[in-house]
């Protein structure tokens, strides 16, 4: 813990810090809360530099986005702005991150009296839809350039190519396992259909927007009454299809099981959550959403469990080099769960289309 104190002291007054404790359950970065007078006051994060190789670009992106949103809120007279948008502290270097022993660290204010959830009610899902829609809407006139922090992050053609490479290399000999072969086979069987978004983009029919790209349900802060306070985890904000934010939220929130549920019977696609989230999202995006984007929102709801299955399986075959795991077959269990969710979402496609009138 001493090392954490010394890193934190480069951002905040060391004397004020009582303790530094783990926070959250992200699969990429390591996150801690810094306690001051018995309360969490700051969030300390070790940035995973293997995933985010250009930390300067990362922090520039985040600062551009948070400053833009802050200014908009100020001009709209929004109250309580410090609860509504993240704020990163400057370190002794004048930058919003430091490097110590080759590790990258940053500190942001902890948003007091806020809660995260792993599962939400339809009511919360509606407000989440409105908030993620609003988030994209606020960024439509962002002039500062936003770098593609992880190139091709949500490009399913690229993710499938990564899976092909993993299969071809078979680094740890997993392609001998029948279950792994079957999963690869099933993924490939529907790959063409799942690449629809990339084709529409190449044909010039589908735009990219500045999206959040990690709209897991636990990346939204709520107050004690269930009102949305703030969108967090801005690492992956970058140009993408709106499908990213719509699909990834439902991947987590409409799943009646968990992301890594070992019991596949728990996993179904909750259409009540879909309906509520879609309603909020369409309201939040009405100023800019094109018909081609709206028409393909049901496709997005199937694409994200599919893409996550591809990514988890790729990591499993590669020997678990990307996602944090808790046990050796964790990425395989995650793949099975995401594949089940994909199949469940596919079953709901007709109902989704009917609901949206597309
Ligand atoms: C990662 O770090 P976390 O948990 O917010 C991943 C997302 C995945 C998610 C799966 C940079 O997000 O893309 O959807 O795990 N982030 C990155 O839970 O790869
Ligand atoms: Mg994240």
Unreliable stretches: none
Q: What would you report as the Rg, rounded to the nearest angstrom?
A: 20 Å
Heterogens: 2-acetamido-2-deoxy-1-O-phosphono-alpha-D-glucopyranose, magnesium ion
Q: What's the name of the CATH homologous superfamily of the largest domain?
A: Aminoglycoside phosphotransferase (APH), C-terminal lobe
Number of domains: 2
CATH architecture of the largest domain: Alpha-Beta Complex
State the shape: globular
Q: How many alpha or pi helices?
A: 13
Report the top-level CATH class of the largest domain: Alpha Beta
Q: Give average pLDDT, whole number.
A: 96
Distance between the termini: 54 Å
Q: Please tally the β strands and state the result.
A: 9
Class by alpha and beta content: alpha+beta
Strand content of the residues, in percent? 5-15%
Q: What is the name of the CATH topology of the largest domain?
A: Aminoglycoside 3'-phosphotransferase, Chain: A, domain 2
Written overview of the protein:
- The chain is 44% helix and 12% strand.
- It is α+β, with helices and mostly antiparallel strands and 358 residues long.
- A 5-stranded antiparallel beta sheet has the order 1-2-3-5-4, covered by helices on one side. A two-stranded antiparallel sheet has the order 6-9. A two-stranded antiparallel ribbon has the order 7-8.
- The protein starts with a helix and ends with a helix.
- The model has no long low-confidence stretch (mean pLDDT 96).
- The longest helix has 21 residues, at 55-75.
- The protein has helices at residues 2-8, 55-75, 122-138, 156-169, 178-189, 191-194, 196-202, 243-253, 271-284, 291-295, 297-317, 330-347, 349-356, and strands at 19-22, 30-36, 39-47, 98-100, 103-109, 209-211, 220-222, 228-231, 238-240.
- The chain has 2 domains: 2-109, Phosphorylase Kinase, domain 1, CATH 3.30.200; 122-356, Aminoglycoside 3'-phosphotransferase, Chain: A, domain 2, CATH 3.90.1200.
- It is built from 13 helices and 9 strands.
- Helix 5 packs antiparallel against helix 11 (297-317).
- Strand 4 and strand 5 form a beta hairpin.
- The structure holds 2-acetamido-2-deoxy-1-O-phosphono-alpha-D-glucopyranose and magnesium ion.
- 2-acetamido-2-deoxy-1-O-phosphono-alpha-D-glucopyranose binds next to loops.
């Amino acid at each position: 813990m001493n090392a954490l104190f010394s890193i934190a002291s480069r951002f905040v007054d060391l004397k004020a810090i009582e303790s530094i404790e783990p926070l959250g359950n992200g699969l990429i970065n390591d996150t801690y809360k810094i306690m001051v007078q018995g309360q969490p006051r700051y969030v300390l994060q070790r940035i995973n530099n293997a995933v985010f190789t250009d930390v300067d670009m990362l922090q520039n992106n985040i600062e551009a986005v948070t400053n833009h949103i802050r200014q908009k809120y100020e001009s709209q007279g929004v109250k309580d702005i410090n609860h509504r948008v993240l704020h990163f502290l400057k370190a002794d270097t004048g930058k919003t991150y430091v490097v110590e022993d080759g590790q990258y660290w940053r500190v942001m204010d902890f948003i007091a009296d806020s809660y995260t959830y792993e599962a939400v009610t339809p009511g919360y899902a509606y407000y989440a839809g409105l908030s993620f829609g609003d988030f994209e809407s606020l960024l439509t006139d962002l002039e500062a350039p936003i770098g593609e922090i992880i190139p091709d992050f949500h490009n399913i053609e690229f993710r499938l190519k990564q899976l092909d490479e993993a299969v071809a290399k078979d680094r740890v000999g997993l392609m001998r396992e029948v279950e792994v072969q079957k999963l690869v086979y099933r993924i490939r069987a529907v790959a063409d259909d799942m690449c629809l978004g990339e084709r529409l983009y190449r044909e010039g029919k589908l735009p990219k927007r500045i999206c959040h790209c990690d709209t897991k349900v636990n990346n939204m802060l709520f107050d004690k009454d269930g009102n949305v306070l703030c969108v967090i985890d801005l690492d992956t904000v970058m140009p993408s299809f709106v499908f990213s934010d719509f699909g990834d939220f439902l991947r987590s929130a409409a799943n009646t099981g968990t992301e890594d549920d070992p019991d596949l019977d728990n996993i179904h696609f909750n259409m009540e959550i879909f309906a509520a989230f879609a309603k909020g999202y369409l309201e939040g995006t009405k100023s800019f959403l094109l018909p081609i984007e709206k028409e393909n929102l049901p496709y997005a709801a199937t694409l994200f469990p599919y893409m996550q299955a591809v990514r988890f399986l790729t990591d499993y075959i590669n020997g678990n080099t990307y996602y944090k795991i808790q046990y050796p077959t964790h990425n395989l269990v995650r793949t099975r769960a995401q594949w089940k969710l994909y199949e469940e979402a596919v079953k709901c496609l007709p109902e989704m289309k009917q609901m949206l009138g597309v």
